[in-house]
């Protein structure tokens, strides 16, 4: 395996670690959309700027299927 391929694989592995971040549901009417064009639902989250690393990891997963778990966080962002 060449060095560039190994480096790319290592970076990909780091991106695919568990992603955790603090968020809240957007305060807009369309924060949760039920029965979209494809019969699925959409959820829009507000994520603070302090969570940008997690957001970048999430962007890297665009188009992939992943599991979402929600738990209440007592307190502020």
Largest sheet properties: 2 strands, antiparallel
| Structure class | alpha+beta
Q: Are there runs of 5+ residues with pLDDT below 50, and where?
A: none
**Portion in beta strands:** 5-15%
Q: Please give the number of β-strands.
A: 4
H/E series: HEEEEH
Strand order of the largest sheet: 1-4
Q: Whole-Å distance between the termini?
A: 43 Å
Helix content: 25-40%
Structurally, the number of domains stands at 1
Overall 3D shape: extended
Question: What is the tally of helical segments?
Answer: 2
Radius of gyration: 16 Å
What is the assembly state of the chains in this entry?
Answer: single chain
Q: What's the mean pLDDT score?
A: 82
What can you tell me about this protein's structure?
The protein is an alpha+beta fold and 77 residues long. The protein has one domain. Helices cover 29% and strands 10% of the residues. The protein contains two helices and four strands. The strands form two sheets. The protein has a two-stranded antiparallel ribbon with strand order 1-4. A two-stranded antiparallel sheet has the order 2-3. It starts with a helix and ends in a 17-residue tail after the last helix. The relative contact order is 0.18. The model has no long low-confidence stretch (mean pLDDT 82).
Gist?
This protein is an alpha+beta fold and 77 residues long. The chain has two helices and four strands; from the N terminus they run H-E-E-E-E-H. A two-stranded antiparallel ribbon has the order 1-4.
Write the layout of secondary structure elements.
Layout: H1 3-15, E1 24-25, E2 32-33, E3 42-43, E4 45-46, H2 52-60
Antiparallel strand pairs: 1-4, 2-3
């Amino acid at each position: 395996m060449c060095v560039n391929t190994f480096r790319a694989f290592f970076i990909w592995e780091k991106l695919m670690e568990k992603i955790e971040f603090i968020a809240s549901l957007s305060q807009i009417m369309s924060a949760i959309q039920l029965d979209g064009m494809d019969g699925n639902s959409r959820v829009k989250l507000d994520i603070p700027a302090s969570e940008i690393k997690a957001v970048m990891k999430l962007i890297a997963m665009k188009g992939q299927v992943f599991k979402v778990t929600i738990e209440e966080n007592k307190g502020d962002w």
